[in-house]
Design brief:
Length: about 475
């Protein structure tokens, strides 16, 4: 400590003075600025390692300054300070490269502690070239889109995991929420970024081949082993191995993975020499691992070992507010990919998108936007080409004026539905109708889904939701 340079940028004199005094007492070299113009001059002349930057300045926007400073020096550490914290600004600052986001009023001891932590990480962090850093930022991390509180936690945990170089990480979330995307972002923003990232789908490889796939084999280890072959752990040396669908890994293989995690060593199939596993192991699953542990289908000791650093990805139905930003992002990417000029979606289209449950999560949303863009010639996407299940109205089946002697009519058909005296929830009605459709078609999910005007993925999601086998 003592060689690091810190620039304090805040137009409130008392806060500016307090931060400067605290940091100088801690042994840092400190300069201060009270406006954007002065901050730009000090940045050029002083060359700070870290900046404490207020968002609201009299002549500049702190976000714009953050972007300017990061473009000039991608390695400069930045702590954003604001009196009016909100979700959008938090997400934007983190994605632009801020290392921390702190609201006023704050505790000076907390500030000092975070400054020390961040600068310690800076000293230890492996240096990478500017070109590769820019490539990583645009190709992976920027694809994590959303402004909900839950997504902010995902952004923060992704950043923490990337910088800490923790050896095991567990990513939990439903299918389609972006687990592999988070795994790649962790790798690409870590000191291992220049080494390989290799993903393995544990559910897609037969049990008897998985060990050979991961660890490789020696010549003569089995009948067809005519020569020695390296496994994924060996090929990914120094990098990251992503074990997707870890919940489907057979118990015998779980034991071997646990040993690799604990000893950092493994053997090729048929080999006697121990090889060093210099890799970060990122795992992911859409299953309930504690439930699998209770059922004896997943090792408890492996689960607790993996669960040291855990990232929970929320399903899209729990972050509906993210849908507009996701739609804008996908339209932009697909415009570039297909050479189209779609400007956005109509209000009615967005209303349909926001009322749907999205059992396939972000992946299903992207596929839907791509489908509509391919079919709809309009510059603003209309609801005309949305899938049937998304356009299906969510109006109640029973009207307030209904009496047991009446019958309901929909689409020209009379329906014999009786409202119980004590009422009933729409979820109970939905569960009952799904049960009836499955019984009618002897459990055929495709036919039952067609009967109810929904996709097979949707009925499978609702069957799981209601505990229907």
């Amino acid at each position: 400590m003592g060689s690091e340079r810190i620039l304090v940028v805040d137009d409130e004199k008392l806060i500016n003075w307090s931060l400067v005094e605290m940091l100088e007492d801690a042994g840092y070299l400190v300069e201060s600025a009270a406006c954007g113009a002065e901050a730009r001059k000090k940045f050029s002349s002083f060359g700070p390692d870290m900046i404490l930057l207020d968002i609201a300045l009299p002549d500049a926007n702190g976000m714009e300054l953050l972007q300017e400073f990061k473009e000039q020096d991608e390695h400069v550490m930045v702590i954003m300070i604001t009196a009016n914290a909100d979700l959008d600004s938090t997400v934007k600052s983190l994605k632009l490269g801020a290392d921390e986001y702190i609201g006023k009023p704050f505790n000076l001891d907390v500030i000092e502690h975070r400054v020390r932590q961040i600068l310690d990480k800076r000293r230890l962090k492996k240096q990478t070239t500017t070109a590769k850093r820019i490539l990583r930022r645009s190709s992976d991390f920027d694809q994590l889109v959303g402004s909900s509180a839950k997504m902010i936690e995902v952004f923060k945990m992704t950043k923490i995991c990337a910088e800490s170089d923790c050896k095991t990480i567990l990513i939990l979330g439903e299918s389609g929420t972006g687990k592999e995307l988070v795994a790649r972002a962790i790798h690409m923003h870590s000191s291992r970024a220049e080494a390989p990232f290799i993903d393995v789908n544990c559910a897609a490889i037969p049990d008897n081949l998985l060990e050979n796939e991961l660890f490789g084999h020696e010549k003569g280890a089995f009948t067809d082993a005519s020569q020695r072959e390296e496994g994924i752990f060996e090929c990914a040396d120094g990098g990251t191995v992503f074990l997707d669908e870890i919940g489907d890994m057979p118990l015998a293989m779980q034991t071997k993975i646990l040993k690799v995690i604990e000893t950092r060593r493994y053997r090729r199939v048929g080999g006697r020499a121990n090889l060093e596993a210099n890799v970060r192991i990122v795992t992911a699953t859409n299953q309930d691992l504690p439930a699998l542990v209770e059922q004896g289908l997943f090792r408890g000791d492996l689960y607790y070992r993996l669960n040291v650093m855990c990232i929970h990805l929320p399903p899209l139905r729990e972050r509906i507010d993210c849908i507009p930003s996701l739609v804008d992002y996908f339209i932009g990417r697909l415009n570039a990919e297909y050479g189209k000029k779609v400007q956005g979606v109509e209000a009615e289209t967005m209303a349909y998108l926001k009322q749907y449950d999205w059992p396939g999560n972000v992946r299903e949303l992207r596929n839907t936007i791509e489908r509509v863009m391919m079919l709809d010639p309009a510059p603003m996407l209309t609801p005309n080409f949305l899938p049937t299940e998304i356009k299906r109205p969510s109006a109640p089946l029973l009207s307030d004026s209904y009496t047991p002697a009446d019958s309901l009519s929909a689409g020209g058909r009379n329906m014999d539905i009786t409202l119980p005296p004590d009422g009933i929830t729409l979820e109970e009605v939905e569960k009952m109708l799904i049960q009836q459709a499955l019984l009618r078609y002897d459990g055929n999910q495709t036919k039952a889904a067609t009967c109810l005007g929904m996709s097979r993925d949707t009925i499978r999601y609702r069957m799981k939701k209601f505990g229907l086998n």
